[in-house]
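Intended use. Records like the one below are meant for learning the mapping from a protein sequence to its folded structure. Do not use them to infer anything beyond what is encoded.
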Amino acid sequence: MKCPLDHTELQSKRYEDNIKVDVCPNCGGMWLDKGELEAIQETRERDYSEELARMPDLGYKAYELAQQKIGRRLQCPHCNNEMEAREYARCSQVMIDVCPHCHGIWLDKGEIEDLEIFFERSRLEAGSLRGEFFASLRTLFE
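Structure written out for the chain above:
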């Protein structure tokens, strides 16, 4: 397969829990087949807690990223159909390129780390909300 940005041959690499991904040695982008992002999301090999502590929650980041990708027409390296740029999970502030046909995902350099930080933040917030919910539920019965 070739990189959708610079047409360099993608190289097969192992990421985290031995998940096979395809990486461009030139631009650093990453191709994920259907299901590989979910597999990465389930692993917790890297700790991003320091990055989370330093990272402000910037609502305008997704808009700026979308503006950078407007007009960019990438061809899927797997099935050669045109990919669509969209924000992952509509609240991650990470714009990814998705193939509507084979459901593969192209990530520009650094976007996999941004997504892993989003996954970790989501886990922490879910745990916090769960704790708050049960604490408020307990007060109902006191």
